[in-house]
Design a protein that fits this description.
The chain is elongated, with a radius of gyration of 18 Å. The protein is of the alpha+beta class and about 240 residues long. The strands form three sheets. The protein has a four-stranded antiparallel sheet. It has a four-stranded antiparallel sheet with strand order 2-7-4-5. It has a three-stranded antiparallel sheet with strand order 9-11-10. The longest helix is centred in the middle third of the chain and has 25 residues. Strand 4 and strand 5 form a beta hairpin.
């Protein structure tokens, strides 16, 4: 599981006084939305489903996915407990479609809210609007950083940049960070083949940049990985700050 994938945006120093909109901010009396349950690997939405509702994850884990030109699955985002997802409904036209797939990684539970109901809820408070805007800004920043990572064709630069993005921990010094992510999940997030990912991770382990064993979490030496990528001349600038 990708429990640590939600640790992001360590460099948003100017925004630290703001907080994003999470499940904790929503009414607890059941007046907004309905609770949906999903088995492991169940589909939350399909590419041709209408983008007319937003979700907040109560428990479990959900990914949003698409496919690349070669038919491989690419993970766009990993959703942790409390986080909103499916917010693309605010950017689509009336009959806009998802064009992605939402899938439960584990047995999961989410609050499903219709677009119109959620808009009415946001309009009731400037604080809610500000919090949701902050959430969208963080998502946009993460998307831009991921695009920067994927722009690199080399396996080491792409996978190394992805690991640094996942290992970004707000407010903490650079050190070893534990990531609960498999090679298969890294391959899907980096738009790489499973075999290429495994070979590259093997190199990183020999260099002392990561540690991993079967049935154990991945440990990333953030400082060492940054130094390696910087010396090789291909670290993404946004990950150096």
């Amino acid at each position: 599981m990708l429990k640590s994938a939600a640790r992001r945006f360590a460099n948003h120093l100017a925004c630290q006084t703001l907080t994003g909109l999470t499940l904790e901010h929503l009414p607890r009396n059941g007046s907004l939305g309905r609770v949906r349950h999903y088995r492991k690997n169940a589909v939350v939405w399909r590419p041709d489903d209408r983008a007319d509702r937003i979700y907040f994850l109560k428990r479990g884990q959900v990914t949003t996915m698409t496919g690349d030109a070669e038919g491989r699955k690419v993970i766009l985002r990993v959703i942790g407990e409390g986080e909103p997802f499916g917010e693309i409904c605010f950017c689509s036209q009336e009959r806009g479609l998802r064009h992605t797939t939402g899938r439960a990684v584990t047995d999961s539970e989410a609050l499903e809210i219709k677009h119109a109901d959620f808009v009415s809820y946001l309009r009731g408070s400037n604080h809610r609007l500000t919090a949701f805007l902050f959430t969208l800004c963080k998502r946009l920043s993460e998307t831009e950083r991921r695009a920067e990572v994927l722009a690199h064709r080399g396996a080491e630069e792409r996978l190394g940049g992805l690991l640094l993005q996942l290992a970004a921990v707000p407010g903490e010094m650079e050190s070893e960070v534990v990531l609960h992510v498999s090679h298969d999940e890294l391959a899907q997030m980096g738009a790489m083949s499973r075999s290429h990912t495994t070979v590259t991770m093997g190199k990183f382990r020999r260099y002392g940049l990561v540690r991993y064993e079967r049935n154990r979490p991945l440990v990333v030496n953030v400082a060492a990985l940054k130094s390696h990528l910087n010396l090789c001349g291909y670290i993404p600038r946004s990950l150096l700050r």
